[in-house]
């Protein structure tokens, strides 16, 4: 294993690749040698430009993962455009905030459908392809709320807790086929989803006070973990949720 982190010749799907964590992971995979299908509700043109500047191929796939309708098409278009599928990163997600006593069914369903239901069915579609091909890598994006309850995000907590369990379930079923299924649990990362927390002086101070690294994470902080889990170096890592959190959980 002379270059265990080399992803040359491999093809990845990254959902929610147009900004933030998804963009950073897509670029990191390309830096390690992978070609990337960038999936998003809005075009990931900037991400694709970064990937192509690295000498890698990028495909743009428009898809709204608030329903499972596009999952088969995403896999088919990736294989048609880039020739194969080796890696899936389930990153696309939304968040809705509100007190549990007032939380609406619409906000519950919107988050569960995007953050959990679509994760399973896209993994199922990719998994069928990977099993037939003899192996692959699936990386789900979990959360600190995979481990903790949080406040004012009931559907997000439920979905991300579900992602942790689903990661283990799929690993149990698919390890024998050479498909690894793991997750990354980002800590508090400065993205659009956390803009409200960053803008709240009291919450922001409380969050920073608990993080041993004494800063919010950047999307790029997740790139190394994604490359590791996508690579041959992680061939015997199964069903694991890897926290990249600046030490949050250690407190």
Defining key terms:
251 residues, alpha/beta, Rossmann fold, 8 helices, 42% helix, globular
Description:
With 251 residues, this protein is of the alpha/beta class. It has a single domain (11-191, 220-243), classed as NAD(P)-binding Rossmann-like Domain (Rossmann fold, 3-Layer(aba) Sandwich). β2 (35-40), α2 and β3 form a beta-alpha-beta unit. It contains 8 helices and 7 strands; from the N terminus they run βαβαβαβαβαβαααβ. The chain is 42% helix and 15% strand. α3 (71-82) crosses α4 (105-133) and α4 (105-133) packs parallel to α5. A 7-stranded parallel sheet has the order 3-2-1-4-5-6-7, sandwiched between helices. The chain has helices spanning 20-31, 45-53, 71-82, 105-133, 154-174, 195-199, 201-210, 223-230; strands spanning 11-15, 35-40, 58-62, 87-90, 136-141, 179-186, 241-244. The termini are far apart.
């Amino acid at each position: 294993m002379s270059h265990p982190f080399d992803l040359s010749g491999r093809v990845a799907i990254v959902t929610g690749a147009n900004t933030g964590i998804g963009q950073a992971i897509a670029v990191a995979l390309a830096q390690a040698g992978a070609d990337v299908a960038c999936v998003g509700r809005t075009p990931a043109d900037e991400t694709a430009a970064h990937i192509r500047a690295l000498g890698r191929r990028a495909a743009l796939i428009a898809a709204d993962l608030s329903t499972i309708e596009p999952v088969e098409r995403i896999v088919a278009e990736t294989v048609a455009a880039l020739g194969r599928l080796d890696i899936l990163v389930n990153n696309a997600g939304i968040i809705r905030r509100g007190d549990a006593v007032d939380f609406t069914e619409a906000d519950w369903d919107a988050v569960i459908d995007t953050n959990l239901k679509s994760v399973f069915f896209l993994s199922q579609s990719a998994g069928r392809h990977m099993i037939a091909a003899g192996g692959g890598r699936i990386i789900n994006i979990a959360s600190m709320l995979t481990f903790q309850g949080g406040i004012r995000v009931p559907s997000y907590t439920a979905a991300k807790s579900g992602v942790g369990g689903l990661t283990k379930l799929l690993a149990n079923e698919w390890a024998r086929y050479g498909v690894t299924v793991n997750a990354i649990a980002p800590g508090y990362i400065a993205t659009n989803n956390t803009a409200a927390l960053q803008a709240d002086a009291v919450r922001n101070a409380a969050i920073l006070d608990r993080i041993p690294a004494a800063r919010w994470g950047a999307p790029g902080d997740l790139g190394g973990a994604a490359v590791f889990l996508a690579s041959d170096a992680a061939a015997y890592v199964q069903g694991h949720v890897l926290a990249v959190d600046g030490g949050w959980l250690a407190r």
